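User: Predict the full complex structure for these chains.
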Amino acid sequence: MAAGAAQLRVEGVAKQFGGVTAVDEVSLEVQQGEILSVIGPNGAGKTSLLNMVSGFYRPDRGRIAFEGEDITNLPPSRIAERGIARTFQNIALFKGMTVLDNLMLGRHVRMKSGVFASFVYWGLAQKEEMAHREKVEDLIEFLKLEDLRKQPTGALSYGLQKRVELGRALALEPKALLLDEPMGGMNQEEKEDMARYVLDVNEERGTTIILIEHDMGVVMDISKRVVVLDRGRVIAAGEPKSVQANPEVIRAYLGTKHAIRKAA
Amino acid sequence: MFHRESGYYKTTYAADMALYPLPIARWTVAGIALAMCIAPFVLHAYYVSVINLILVATVGALGLNILVGYTGQISIGHAAFMSVGAYTAANLAVRLDLPFWVTLPAGGLMAAAIGAIVGIPSLRIKGLYLAIATLAGQLIIEWTINHVPWISGGMQASIEVPRPTLFGAQLRTQHQLYWFLLFFAVLAIVGTLNLVRSRIGRAFIAIRDQDIAAEIIGINIFRYKLLAFAISSFYAGVTGVLYTYYLGIANYEQFQIVTSIDYLAMIIIGGLGSILGSIFGAIFVTLLPIAIRLAMENWGAFLFGDADINNLIPNLRLMVFGGLIIVFLVLEPEGLNRLWRNIRSYFRVWPFSY
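Assistant: Here is the predicted structure of the two-chain assembly.
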Protein backbone atom coordinates (compact mmCIF):
# COMPACT_ATOMS: atom_id res chain seq x y z
CA MET A 1 0.00 0.00 0.00
CA ALA A 2 1.51 3.25 -1.10
CA ALA A 3 1.69 6.09 1.40
CA GLY A 4 -1.28 8.42 1.18
CA ALA A 5 -3.35 5.91 -0.78
CA ALA A 6 -6.88 5.32 0.42
CA GLN A 7 -7.43 2.43 2.82
CA LEU A 8 -10.78 1.59 1.32
CA ARG A 9 -11.52 2.37 -2.28
CA VAL A 10 -14.94 1.88 -3.83
CA GLU A 11 -14.93 2.31 -7.61
CA GLY A 12 -18.06 2.68 -9.68
CA VAL A 13 -20.03 0.14 -7.69
CA ALA A 14 -23.59 -0.62 -8.74
CA LYS A 15 -26.28 -2.97 -7.48
CA GLN A 16 -29.74 -3.64 -8.82
CA PHE A 17 -32.59 -5.55 -7.23
CA GLY A 18 -35.00 -6.51 -9.95
CA GLY A 19 -35.80 -3.24 -11.63
CA VAL A 20 -34.70 -1.09 -8.71
CA THR A 21 -31.24 0.39 -8.78
CA ALA A 22 -30.20 0.49 -5.13
CA VAL A 23 -26.68 1.72 -5.71
CA ASP A 24 -25.70 3.41 -8.96
CA GLU A 25 -22.05 3.91 -9.85
CA VAL A 26 -20.89 4.97 -6.41
CA SER A 27 -17.23 5.77 -5.95
CA LEU A 28 -15.59 6.85 -2.74
CA GLU A 29 -12.30 6.69 -0.95
CA VAL A 30 -11.74 6.37 2.76
CA GLN A 31 -8.43 7.32 4.33
CA GLN A 32 -6.86 5.33 7.12
CA GLY A 33 -8.04 6.65 10.49
CA GLU A 34 -10.80 8.99 9.36
CA ILE A 35 -14.44 9.12 10.36
CA LEU A 36 -16.61 9.16 7.28
CA SER A 37 -20.37 9.51 7.53
CA VAL A 38 -22.70 8.30 4.84
CA ILE A 39 -26.04 10.08 4.96
CA GLY A 40 -29.06 10.30 2.75
CA PRO A 41 -32.83 9.89 2.79
CA ASN A 42 -34.44 6.48 3.32
CA GLY A 43 -33.82 4.13 0.42
CA ALA A 44 -30.78 6.09 -0.77
CA GLY A 45 -28.65 2.93 -0.83
CA LYS A 46 -26.56 3.50 2.29
CA THR A 47 -27.04 0.06 3.81
CA SER A 48 -26.75 -1.62 0.41
CA LEU A 49 -23.40 0.09 -0.01
CA LEU A 50 -22.27 -1.19 3.39
CA ASN A 51 -23.53 -4.66 2.53
CA MET A 52 -21.36 -4.68 -0.56
CA VAL A 53 -18.28 -3.55 1.33
CA SER A 54 -18.79 -6.26 3.95
CA GLY A 55 -19.47 -8.90 1.31
CA PHE A 56 -23.17 -9.66 1.77
CA TYR A 57 -24.03 -8.36 -1.68
CA ARG A 58 -21.97 -8.82 -4.76
CA PRO A 59 -21.87 -5.63 -6.80
CA ASP A 60 -23.19 -5.95 -10.35
CA ARG A 61 -20.45 -3.62 -11.52
CA GLY A 62 -17.45 -1.92 -10.01
CA ARG A 63 -14.67 -2.83 -7.68
CA ILE A 64 -13.95 -2.58 -3.98
CA ALA A 65 -10.39 -2.61 -2.68
CA PHE A 66 -9.18 -2.69 0.91
CA GLU A 67 -5.57 -1.79 1.62
CA GLY A 68 -4.79 -2.14 -2.04
CA GLU A 69 -6.27 -5.62 -2.40
CA ASP A 70 -9.41 -6.48 -4.28
CA ILE A 71 -12.17 -7.71 -1.96
CA THR A 72 -15.08 -7.34 -4.36
CA ASN A 73 -16.03 -10.99 -4.54
CA LEU A 74 -14.84 -12.28 -1.18
CA PRO A 75 -17.39 -13.84 1.18
CA PRO A 76 -18.19 -11.91 4.40
CA SER A 77 -16.11 -14.21 6.61
CA ARG A 78 -12.97 -13.57 4.54
CA ILE A 79 -13.57 -9.84 4.59
CA ALA A 80 -13.88 -10.00 8.38
CA GLU A 81 -10.54 -11.80 8.50
CA ARG A 82 -8.95 -8.89 6.66
CA GLY A 83 -10.06 -6.53 9.39
CA ILE A 84 -13.40 -5.02 8.41
CA ALA A 85 -15.99 -5.32 11.17
CA ARG A 86 -19.52 -4.00 11.23
CA THR A 87 -22.69 -3.61 13.23
CA PHE A 88 -26.24 -3.85 11.97
CA GLN A 89 -29.10 -1.42 11.89
CA ASN A 90 -31.38 -3.95 13.55
CA ILE A 91 -29.07 -5.50 16.12
CA ALA A 92 -27.79 -8.97 15.22
CA LEU A 93 -26.51 -10.28 18.52
CA PHE A 94 -26.53 -13.88 19.68
CA LYS A 95 -29.40 -13.33 22.07
CA GLY A 96 -29.20 -16.51 24.11
CA MET A 97 -25.52 -16.05 24.80
CA THR A 98 -23.94 -13.96 27.49
CA VAL A 99 -22.24 -10.64 26.81
CA LEU A 100 -18.95 -12.40 27.45
CA ASP A 101 -19.61 -15.14 24.89
CA ASN A 102 -20.73 -12.59 22.32
CA LEU A 103 -17.46 -10.73 22.71
CA MET A 104 -15.44 -13.96 22.71
CA LEU A 105 -17.14 -14.82 19.42
CA GLY A 106 -15.94 -11.49 18.11
CA ARG A 107 -12.42 -12.81 18.60
CA HIS A 108 -13.13 -15.90 16.50
CA VAL A 109 -10.84 -14.96 13.63
CA ARG A 110 -8.04 -14.03 16.00
CA MET A 111 -8.13 -17.48 17.65
CA LYS A 112 -6.78 -20.72 16.26
CA SER A 113 -7.90 -23.72 18.37
CA GLY A 114 -9.09 -26.51 16.13
CA VAL A 115 -11.40 -29.42 16.80
CA PHE A 116 -8.86 -31.59 18.53
CA ALA A 117 -7.49 -28.84 20.80
CA SER A 118 -11.05 -27.86 21.72
CA PHE A 119 -11.97 -31.45 22.50
CA VAL A 120 -9.00 -31.88 24.83
CA TYR A 121 -9.27 -28.30 26.09
CA TRP A 122 -6.77 -28.50 28.95
CA GLY A 123 -3.53 -27.23 27.54
CA LEU A 124 -3.58 -25.31 24.29
CA ALA A 125 -7.24 -24.33 24.05
CA GLN A 126 -7.46 -23.23 27.67
CA LYS A 127 -4.34 -21.12 27.32
CA GLU A 128 -5.76 -19.48 24.24
CA GLU A 129 -9.14 -18.92 25.89
CA MET A 130 -7.48 -17.14 28.78
CA ALA A 131 -5.28 -14.95 26.60
CA HIS A 132 -8.30 -13.83 24.62
CA ARG A 133 -10.44 -13.51 27.71
CA GLU A 134 -8.02 -10.85 28.86
CA LYS A 135 -8.47 -8.87 25.67
CA VAL A 136 -12.23 -9.19 25.96
CA GLU A 137 -12.09 -8.03 29.58
CA ASP A 138 -10.27 -4.90 28.40
CA LEU A 139 -13.14 -4.24 26.03
CA ILE A 140 -15.71 -4.91 28.74
CA GLU A 141 -13.98 -2.32 30.87
CA PHE A 142 -13.78 0.15 27.99
CA LEU A 143 -17.51 -0.19 27.28
CA LYS A 144 -18.44 -0.30 30.97
CA LEU A 145 -20.18 -3.66 30.74
CA GLU A 146 -18.55 -5.18 33.84
CA ASP A 147 -21.71 -6.03 35.75
CA LEU A 148 -23.43 -7.45 32.67
CA ARG A 149 -20.69 -9.89 31.71
CA LYS A 150 -22.71 -13.02 32.43
CA GLN A 151 -26.10 -11.65 31.34
CA PRO A 152 -27.73 -13.07 28.22
CA THR A 153 -27.75 -10.25 25.68
CA GLY A 154 -31.42 -10.79 24.81
CA ALA A 155 -32.35 -9.50 28.28
CA LEU A 156 -30.48 -6.20 27.90
CA SER A 157 -32.00 -2.88 26.98
CA TYR A 158 -31.83 -1.68 23.39
CA GLY A 159 -29.08 0.82 24.02
CA LEU A 160 -26.96 -1.73 25.84
CA GLN A 161 -27.46 -4.27 23.07
CA LYS A 162 -26.11 -1.73 20.59
CA ARG A 163 -23.13 -1.23 22.87
CA VAL A 164 -22.49 -4.97 23.09
CA GLU A 165 -22.71 -5.20 19.32
CA LEU A 166 -20.11 -2.47 19.03
CA GLY A 167 -18.00 -4.45 21.48
CA ARG A 168 -18.32 -7.61 19.44
CA ALA A 169 -17.18 -5.74 16.32
CA LEU A 170 -14.27 -4.23 18.24
CA ALA A 171 -13.23 -7.63 19.59
CA LEU A 172 -12.17 -8.46 16.06
CA GLU A 173 -9.55 -5.69 16.32
CA PRO A 174 -10.73 -4.23 13.04
CA LYS A 175 -8.79 -1.80 10.91
CA ALA A 176 -12.06 -0.40 9.61
CA LEU A 177 -15.39 -0.38 11.38
CA LEU A 178 -18.69 -0.04 9.56
CA LEU A 179 -21.49 1.21 11.80
CA ASP A 180 -25.04 1.06 10.46
CA GLU A 181 -27.09 3.54 12.49
CA PRO A 182 -25.41 2.88 15.83
CA MET A 183 -27.53 5.57 17.46
CA GLY A 184 -30.88 4.73 15.87
CA GLY A 185 -33.67 4.54 18.44
CA MET A 186 -31.54 5.82 21.30
CA ASN A 187 -32.25 8.63 23.70
CA GLN A 188 -30.00 11.68 23.93
CA GLU A 189 -27.85 10.32 26.74
CA GLU A 190 -27.30 6.98 25.03
CA LYS A 191 -26.44 8.78 21.80
CA GLU A 192 -23.83 10.86 23.55
CA ASP A 193 -22.32 7.76 25.14
CA MET A 194 -22.19 5.99 21.81
CA ALA A 195 -20.63 9.00 20.09
CA ARG A 196 -18.00 9.10 22.83
CA TYR A 197 -17.16 5.42 22.33
CA VAL A 198 -16.91 5.85 18.57
CA LEU A 199 -14.58 8.83 18.97
CA ASP A 200 -12.48 6.99 21.56
CA VAL A 201 -12.10 3.97 19.31
CA ASN A 202 -11.05 6.21 16.46
CA GLU A 203 -8.55 8.18 18.52
CA GLU A 204 -7.05 5.43 20.68
CA ARG A 205 -6.91 2.63 18.16
CA GLY A 206 -6.73 4.61 14.96
CA THR A 207 -9.63 2.60 13.58
CA THR A 208 -11.20 3.93 10.42
CA ILE A 209 -14.92 4.51 10.93
CA ILE A 210 -17.61 4.50 8.29
CA LEU A 211 -20.86 5.60 9.83
CA ILE A 212 -24.42 5.61 8.61
CA GLU A 213 -26.48 7.88 10.80
CA HIS A 214 -29.64 9.92 10.63
CA ASP A 215 -28.95 12.20 13.57
CA MET A 216 -27.44 15.22 11.84
CA GLY A 217 -26.15 16.68 15.08
CA VAL A 218 -24.02 13.61 15.69
CA VAL A 219 -22.91 13.41 12.06
CA MET A 220 -21.82 17.04 11.95
CA ASP A 221 -20.04 16.76 15.29
CA ILE A 222 -17.94 13.67 14.89
CA SER A 223 -17.30 13.09 11.19
CA LYS A 224 -14.36 14.40 9.32
CA ARG A 225 -16.03 13.95 5.97
CA VAL A 226 -19.59 13.35 4.88
CA VAL A 227 -20.85 11.59 1.77
CA VAL A 228 -24.45 12.15 0.77
CA LEU A 229 -26.32 9.51 -1.20
CA ASP A 230 -29.62 9.97 -2.93
CA ARG A 231 -31.31 7.30 -5.04
CA GLY A 232 -28.11 5.31 -5.21
CA ARG A 233 -25.88 8.17 -6.33
CA VAL A 234 -23.36 10.33 -4.54
CA ILE A 235 -24.77 13.84 -4.71
CA ALA A 236 -22.28 15.54 -2.44
CA ALA A 237 -19.12 14.84 -0.52
CA GLY A 238 -16.82 16.89 1.64
CA GLU A 239 -16.51 18.49 5.03
CA PRO A 240 -19.66 18.54 7.17
CA LYS A 241 -20.08 22.32 6.89
CA SER A 242 -19.87 22.47 3.11
CA VAL A 243 -22.18 19.50 2.67
CA GLN A 244 -24.77 21.06 4.94
CA ALA A 245 -24.94 24.13 2.72
CA ASN A 246 -25.04 22.19 -0.55
CA PRO A 247 -28.31 22.96 -2.39
CA GLU A 248 -28.40 19.44 -3.88
CA VAL A 249 -28.43 18.00 -0.37
CA ILE A 250 -31.15 20.33 0.82
CA ARG A 251 -33.18 19.37 -2.20
CA ALA A 252 -32.75 15.66 -1.54
CA TYR A 253 -33.85 16.01 2.04
CA LEU A 254 -36.56 18.62 1.77
CA GLY A 255 -37.85 18.16 -1.76
CA THR A 256 -37.70 20.29 -4.92
CA LYS A 257 -40.50 22.64 -4.07
CA HIS A 258 -38.45 24.11 -1.29
CA ALA A 259 -35.51 24.61 -3.58
CA ILE A 260 -37.65 26.25 -6.24
CA ARG A 261 -39.21 28.62 -3.75
CA LYS A 262 -35.78 29.58 -2.52
CA ALA A 263 -34.57 30.24 -6.02
CA ALA A 264 -37.61 32.35 -6.81
CA MET B 1 -29.20 -29.44 45.83
CA PHE B 2 -29.11 -27.05 48.76
CA HIS B 3 -26.40 -24.65 47.90
CA ARG B 4 -25.84 -20.96 47.45
CA GLU B 5 -23.70 -19.49 44.73
CA SER B 6 -22.68 -16.55 46.83
CA GLY B 7 -19.53 -16.57 48.87
CA TYR B 8 -17.27 -18.11 46.25
CA TYR B 9 -14.96 -15.56 44.78
CA LYS B 10 -13.15 -16.37 41.61
CA THR B 11 -9.81 -14.70 41.35
CA THR B 12 -8.48 -16.12 38.10
CA TYR B 13 -9.94 -16.52 34.63
CA ALA B 14 -9.20 -20.24 34.87
CA ALA B 15 -11.40 -20.53 37.95
CA ASP B 16 -14.17 -18.58 36.24
CA MET B 17 -14.02 -20.81 33.18
CA ALA B 18 -13.87 -24.12 35.06
CA LEU B 19 -16.45 -26.75 34.15
CA TYR B 20 -17.67 -26.94 37.73
CA PRO B 21 -16.87 -23.67 39.45
CA LEU B 22 -18.76 -24.50 42.66
CA PRO B 23 -17.48 -27.01 45.22
CA ILE B 24 -20.95 -28.53 45.56
CA ALA B 25 -21.01 -29.32 41.84
CA ARG B 26 -17.58 -30.90 42.06
CA TRP B 27 -18.75 -33.07 44.95
CA THR B 28 -21.84 -34.09 43.02
CA VAL B 29 -19.75 -35.15 40.04
CA ALA B 30 -17.40 -37.05 42.34
CA GLY B 31 -20.40 -38.76 43.94
CA ILE B 32 -21.82 -39.83 40.58
CA ALA B 33 -18.39 -41.09 39.51
CA LEU B 34 -18.14 -43.13 42.71
CA ALA B 35 -21.63 -44.57 42.19
CA MET B 36 -20.73 -45.52 38.61
CA CYS B 37 -17.62 -47.31 39.90
CA ILE B 38 -19.51 -49.24 42.56
CA ALA B 39 -22.53 -50.06 40.38
CA PRO B 40 -21.17 -53.10 38.50
CA PHE B 41 -20.11 -54.76 41.76
CA VAL B 42 -23.54 -54.66 43.33
CA LEU B 43 -25.87 -54.92 40.33
CA HIS B 44 -27.15 -58.01 38.56
CA ALA B 45 -25.92 -58.60 35.00
CA TYR B 46 -29.33 -57.62 33.60
CA TYR B 47 -29.21 -54.17 35.14
CA VAL B 48 -25.62 -53.74 34.04
CA SER B 49 -26.67 -54.57 30.49
CA VAL B 50 -29.32 -51.85 30.70
CA ILE B 51 -26.74 -49.35 31.89
CA ASN B 52 -24.51 -50.46 29.02
CA LEU B 53 -27.26 -49.63 26.55
CA ILE B 54 -27.63 -46.23 28.17
CA LEU B 55 -23.89 -45.60 27.87
CA VAL B 56 -23.95 -46.39 24.16
CA ALA B 57 -27.01 -44.21 23.63
CA THR B 58 -25.36 -41.35 25.52
CA VAL B 59 -22.54 -41.16 22.98
CA GLY B 60 -25.00 -41.07 20.09
CA ALA B 61 -27.28 -38.53 21.75
CA LEU B 62 -24.36 -36.23 22.49
CA GLY B 63 -23.28 -36.40 18.87
CA LEU B 64 -26.74 -35.66 17.54
CA ASN B 65 -27.12 -32.81 20.01
CA ILE B 66 -23.94 -31.18 18.73
CA LEU B 67 -25.54 -31.04 15.29
CA VAL B 68 -29.19 -30.38 16.13
CA GLY B 69 -29.04 -28.71 19.54
CA TYR B 70 -25.89 -26.66 19.18
CA THR B 71 -25.50 -25.97 15.47
CA GLY B 72 -29.20 -25.92 14.65
CA GLN B 73 -29.01 -28.28 11.67
CA ILE B 74 -31.27 -31.29 11.55
CA SER B 75 -30.46 -34.87 10.66
CA ILE B 76 -32.83 -37.79 10.31
CA GLY B 77 -29.97 -39.89 9.01
CA HIS B 78 -28.06 -40.54 12.17
CA ALA B 79 -28.83 -44.22 12.41
CA ALA B 80 -27.32 -44.60 8.95
CA PHE B 81 -24.11 -42.92 10.11
CA MET B 82 -24.07 -45.37 13.00
CA SER B 83 -24.38 -48.24 10.57
CA VAL B 84 -21.48 -46.84 8.55
CA GLY B 85 -19.35 -46.93 11.70
CA ALA B 86 -20.63 -50.36 12.67
CA TYR B 87 -19.95 -51.99 9.30
CA THR B 88 -16.58 -50.29 8.89
CA ALA B 89 -15.48 -51.65 12.25
CA ALA B 90 -17.02 -55.07 11.68
CA ASN B 91 -15.28 -55.50 8.33
CA LEU B 92 -11.95 -54.31 9.67
CA ALA B 93 -12.26 -56.59 12.71
CA VAL B 94 -13.26 -59.65 10.72
CA ARG B 95 -11.23 -59.29 7.51
CA LEU B 96 -8.07 -57.75 8.88
CA ASP B 97 -8.36 -58.94 12.46
CA LEU B 98 -7.79 -55.43 13.79
CA PRO B 99 -8.27 -54.59 17.49
CA PHE B 100 -10.97 -52.20 18.76
CA TRP B 101 -8.59 -49.29 19.22
CA VAL B 102 -8.12 -49.25 15.46
CA THR B 103 -11.65 -50.15 14.38
CA LEU B 104 -13.31 -47.67 16.72
CA PRO B 105 -11.66 -44.49 15.39
CA ALA B 106 -11.79 -45.93 11.86
CA GLY B 107 -15.54 -46.42 12.15
CA GLY B 108 -15.90 -42.92 13.53
CA LEU B 109 -13.82 -41.36 10.75
CA MET B 110 -15.65 -43.21 8.00
CA ALA B 111 -18.98 -42.07 9.44
CA ALA B 112 -17.63 -38.51 9.70
CA ALA B 113 -16.67 -38.54 6.02
CA ILE B 114 -20.06 -39.85 4.93
CA GLY B 115 -21.83 -37.49 7.33
CA ALA B 116 -20.00 -34.49 5.91
CA ILE B 117 -21.08 -35.49 2.40
CA VAL B 118 -24.71 -35.84 3.47
CA GLY B 119 -24.33 -32.44 5.16
CA ILE B 120 -23.32 -30.63 1.99
CA PRO B 121 -26.89 -29.55 1.14
CA SER B 122 -27.04 -27.74 4.50
CA LEU B 123 -25.29 -24.79 2.88
CA ARG B 124 -28.32 -24.06 0.76
CA ILE B 125 -31.26 -25.57 2.60
CA LYS B 126 -32.56 -25.40 6.12
CA GLY B 127 -35.15 -26.96 8.38
CA LEU B 128 -37.65 -29.26 6.76
CA TYR B 129 -35.81 -29.39 3.46
CA LEU B 130 -32.58 -30.38 5.15
CA ALA B 131 -34.50 -33.00 7.12
CA ILE B 132 -35.68 -34.55 3.87
CA ALA B 133 -32.17 -34.43 2.41
CA THR B 134 -30.74 -36.28 5.40
CA LEU B 135 -33.65 -38.70 5.25
CA ALA B 136 -32.57 -39.46 1.70
CA GLY B 137 -29.07 -40.03 3.08
CA GLN B 138 -30.48 -42.51 5.59
CA LEU B 139 -32.34 -44.48 2.91
CA ILE B 140 -29.48 -44.47 0.42
CA ILE B 141 -26.97 -45.68 3.00
CA GLU B 142 -29.38 -48.32 4.29
CA TRP B 143 -30.03 -49.57 0.77
CA THR B 144 -26.35 -49.57 -0.16
CA ILE B 145 -25.30 -51.53 2.88
CA ASN B 146 -28.05 -54.05 2.33
CA HIS B 147 -27.38 -54.53 -1.38
CA VAL B 148 -23.60 -54.65 -1.44
CA PRO B 149 -22.64 -58.07 -0.12
CA TRP B 150 -19.02 -56.97 0.21
CA ILE B 151 -20.08 -54.63 3.02
CA SER B 152 -22.86 -56.51 4.74
CA GLY B 153 -22.21 -60.10 3.81
CA GLY B 154 -25.43 -60.27 1.84
CA MET B 155 -29.08 -59.28 2.02
CA GLN B 156 -30.41 -59.27 5.59
CA ALA B 157 -27.22 -60.84 6.85
CA SER B 158 -25.27 -59.88 9.92
CA ILE B 159 -21.55 -59.99 10.58
CA GLU B 160 -20.36 -61.66 13.72
CA VAL B 161 -17.74 -59.53 15.39
CA PRO B 162 -15.18 -60.83 17.89
CA ARG B 163 -15.48 -59.32 21.35
CA PRO B 164 -13.01 -56.54 22.09
CA THR B 165 -9.79 -57.62 23.78
CA LEU B 166 -7.95 -55.61 26.36
CA PHE B 167 -4.47 -56.69 27.49
CA GLY B 168 -5.03 -60.11 25.95
CA ALA B 169 -8.31 -60.71 27.77
CA GLN B 170 -11.60 -60.80 25.88
CA LEU B 171 -14.41 -58.65 27.25
CA ARG B 172 -17.26 -61.13 27.34
CA THR B 173 -19.60 -60.45 30.22
CA GLN B 174 -21.79 -57.42 30.68
CA HIS B 175 -19.67 -56.43 33.65
CA GLN B 176 -16.50 -56.39 31.59
CA LEU B 177 -18.18 -54.54 28.74
CA TYR B 178 -19.42 -51.99 31.27
CA TRP B 179 -15.94 -50.60 31.89
CA PHE B 180 -15.18 -50.58 28.19
CA LEU B 181 -18.34 -48.62 27.36
CA LEU B 182 -18.11 -46.37 30.41
CA PHE B 183 -14.66 -45.25 29.33
CA PHE B 184 -15.88 -44.10 25.92
CA ALA B 185 -19.07 -42.55 27.28
CA VAL B 186 -17.08 -40.47 29.78
CA LEU B 187 -14.63 -39.50 27.05
CA ALA B 188 -17.53 -38.37 24.88
CA ILE B 189 -19.15 -36.39 27.71
CA VAL B 190 -15.97 -34.59 28.74
CA GLY B 191 -14.97 -33.98 25.13
CA THR B 192 -18.35 -32.48 24.31
CA LEU B 193 -18.30 -30.28 27.41
CA ASN B 194 -14.94 -28.96 26.27
CA LEU B 195 -15.96 -28.58 22.67
CA VAL B 196 -19.01 -26.44 23.37
CA ARG B 197 -17.19 -24.07 25.70
CA SER B 198 -14.34 -23.28 23.34
CA ARG B 199 -13.88 -21.64 19.98
CA ILE B 200 -15.46 -24.31 17.77
CA GLY B 201 -18.51 -24.83 19.96
CA ARG B 202 -19.15 -21.11 20.23
CA ALA B 203 -19.04 -20.86 16.45
CA PHE B 204 -21.64 -23.66 16.22
CA ILE B 205 -23.97 -21.86 18.60
CA ALA B 206 -23.42 -18.61 16.70
CA ILE B 207 -24.55 -20.28 13.46
CA ARG B 208 -27.64 -21.63 15.22
CA ASP B 209 -28.61 -18.28 16.74
CA GLN B 210 -27.83 -15.80 13.94
CA ASP B 211 -26.12 -17.06 10.84
CA ILE B 212 -25.73 -13.61 9.31
CA ALA B 213 -24.02 -12.24 12.38
CA ALA B 214 -21.86 -15.35 12.55
CA GLU B 215 -20.62 -14.64 9.04
CA ILE B 216 -19.85 -11.02 9.75
CA ILE B 217 -17.52 -11.90 12.61
CA GLY B 218 -15.57 -14.19 10.33
CA ILE B 219 -17.11 -17.61 10.78
CA ASN B 220 -17.09 -19.53 7.53
CA ILE B 221 -20.60 -20.94 7.76
CA PHE B 222 -20.24 -23.68 5.18
CA ARG B 223 -17.07 -25.01 6.75
CA TYR B 224 -18.52 -25.01 10.23
CA LYS B 225 -21.77 -26.63 9.19
CA LEU B 226 -19.82 -29.42 7.52
CA LEU B 227 -17.60 -29.64 10.58
CA ALA B 228 -20.69 -30.02 12.78
CA PHE B 229 -21.97 -32.77 10.50
CA ALA B 230 -18.58 -34.48 10.57
CA ILE B 231 -18.13 -34.31 14.36
CA SER B 232 -21.69 -35.37 14.98
CA SER B 233 -21.35 -38.29 12.55
CA PHE B 234 -18.07 -39.25 14.16
CA TYR B 235 -19.94 -39.68 17.44
CA ALA B 236 -22.62 -41.61 15.59
CA GLY B 237 -20.02 -43.86 13.98
CA VAL B 238 -18.43 -44.55 17.34
CA THR B 239 -21.89 -45.30 18.75
CA GLY B 240 -22.38 -47.81 15.97
CA VAL B 241 -19.05 -49.47 16.70
CA LEU B 242 -19.74 -49.63 20.44
CA TYR B 243 -23.17 -51.08 19.80
CA THR B 244 -21.69 -53.67 17.48
CA TYR B 245 -19.16 -54.73 20.10
CA TYR B 246 -21.92 -54.75 22.69
CA LEU B 247 -24.16 -57.01 20.61
CA GLY B 248 -21.38 -59.07 19.06
CA ILE B 249 -22.91 -58.62 15.60
CA ALA B 250 -23.27 -55.87 13.05
CA ASN B 251 -26.79 -55.92 11.72
CA TYR B 252 -28.54 -53.35 9.57
CA GLU B 253 -31.79 -53.80 11.49
CA GLN B 254 -30.32 -51.97 14.45
CA PHE B 255 -29.78 -48.86 12.39
CA GLN B 256 -33.02 -48.22 10.58
CA ILE B 257 -34.92 -44.99 10.44
CA VAL B 258 -36.73 -45.78 13.69
CA THR B 259 -33.39 -45.56 15.46
CA SER B 260 -32.79 -42.12 13.94
CA ILE B 261 -36.13 -41.04 15.36
CA ASP B 262 -35.28 -42.59 18.73
CA TYR B 263 -32.15 -40.47 18.96
CA LEU B 264 -34.01 -37.34 17.93
CA ALA B 265 -36.52 -38.17 20.66
CA MET B 266 -33.69 -38.46 23.16
CA ILE B 267 -32.39 -34.97 22.54
CA ILE B 268 -35.85 -33.40 22.30
CA ILE B 269 -37.03 -35.02 25.52
CA GLY B 270 -33.68 -34.52 27.21
CA GLY B 271 -33.09 -30.99 26.06
CA LEU B 272 -31.70 -29.51 22.86
CA GLY B 273 -28.33 -27.85 23.20
CA SER B 274 -27.61 -29.39 26.56
CA ILE B 275 -25.13 -32.06 27.54
CA LEU B 276 -26.90 -33.07 30.71
CA GLY B 277 -30.06 -33.19 28.59
CA SER B 278 -28.43 -35.63 26.17
CA ILE B 279 -27.65 -37.93 29.09
CA PHE B 280 -31.15 -37.57 30.57
CA GLY B 281 -32.62 -38.30 27.16
CA ALA B 282 -30.46 -41.38 26.64
CA ILE B 283 -31.52 -42.71 30.05
CA PHE B 284 -35.17 -41.90 29.53
CA VAL B 285 -35.54 -43.31 26.03
CA THR B 286 -33.61 -46.46 26.89
CA LEU B 287 -35.63 -47.11 30.03
CA LEU B 288 -39.02 -46.26 28.60
CA PRO B 289 -39.63 -49.50 26.64
CA ILE B 290 -38.32 -51.51 29.58
CA ALA B 291 -40.65 -49.71 31.94
CA ILE B 292 -43.58 -50.21 29.59
CA ARG B 293 -42.87 -53.91 29.29
CA LEU B 294 -42.57 -54.28 33.05
CA ALA B 295 -45.76 -52.37 33.64
CA MET B 296 -47.70 -54.40 31.07
CA GLU B 297 -46.38 -57.71 32.30
CA ASN B 298 -47.29 -56.92 35.88
CA TRP B 299 -50.51 -55.01 35.59
CA GLY B 300 -51.61 -55.50 31.99
CA ALA B 301 -53.54 -58.65 32.91
CA PHE B 302 -56.16 -56.55 34.66
CA LEU B 303 -57.15 -54.96 31.38
CA PHE B 304 -56.13 -57.27 28.54
CA GLY B 305 -55.77 -60.93 27.71
CA ASP B 306 -52.35 -62.58 27.58
CA ALA B 307 -52.19 -62.69 23.79
CA ASP B 308 -53.09 -59.02 23.50
CA ILE B 309 -50.37 -57.94 25.89
CA ASN B 310 -47.60 -59.26 23.68
CA ASN B 311 -49.04 -57.46 20.70
CA LEU B 312 -49.63 -54.35 22.66
CA ILE B 313 -46.18 -53.81 24.09
CA PRO B 314 -44.34 -52.72 20.90
CA ASN B 315 -47.28 -50.61 19.78
CA LEU B 316 -47.74 -49.02 23.16
CA ARG B 317 -44.10 -48.07 23.09
CA LEU B 318 -44.58 -46.17 19.84
CA MET B 319 -47.71 -44.48 21.15
CA VAL B 320 -46.16 -43.38 24.43
CA PHE B 321 -43.14 -42.22 22.51
CA GLY B 322 -45.04 -40.07 20.06
CA GLY B 323 -47.20 -38.72 22.84
CA LEU B 324 -44.21 -37.78 24.95
CA ILE B 325 -42.47 -35.96 22.13
CA ILE B 326 -45.58 -33.88 21.57
CA VAL B 327 -46.01 -33.22 25.29
CA PHE B 328 -42.42 -32.06 25.60
CA LEU B 329 -42.51 -29.92 22.48
CA VAL B 330 -45.62 -28.15 23.74
CA LEU B 331 -45.03 -27.94 27.48
CA GLU B 332 -41.28 -27.99 27.95
CA PRO B 333 -39.42 -27.51 24.67
CA GLU B 334 -36.17 -27.38 26.57
CA GLY B 335 -36.74 -30.88 27.85
CA LEU B 336 -35.81 -32.75 30.99
CA ASN B 337 -32.76 -30.57 31.41
CA ARG B 338 -35.03 -27.57 31.86
CA LEU B 339 -37.22 -29.43 34.37
CA TRP B 340 -34.10 -30.29 36.33
CA ARG B 341 -32.94 -26.68 36.28
CA ASN B 342 -36.35 -25.52 37.47
CA ILE B 343 -36.24 -27.92 40.39
CA ARG B 344 -32.72 -26.83 41.19
CA SER B 345 -33.46 -23.13 41.11
CA TYR B 346 -36.55 -23.74 43.23
CA PHE B 347 -34.38 -25.21 45.95
CA ARG B 348 -31.68 -22.64 45.47
CA VAL B 349 -33.92 -19.81 46.55
CA TRP B 350 -35.90 -21.94 49.00
CA PRO B 351 -37.58 -21.05 51.31
CA PHE B 352 -38.10 -17.75 49.52
CA SER B 353 -39.86 -18.49 46.29
CA TYR B 354 -38.96 -15.28 44.51
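The mean pLDDT of chain B is 88.
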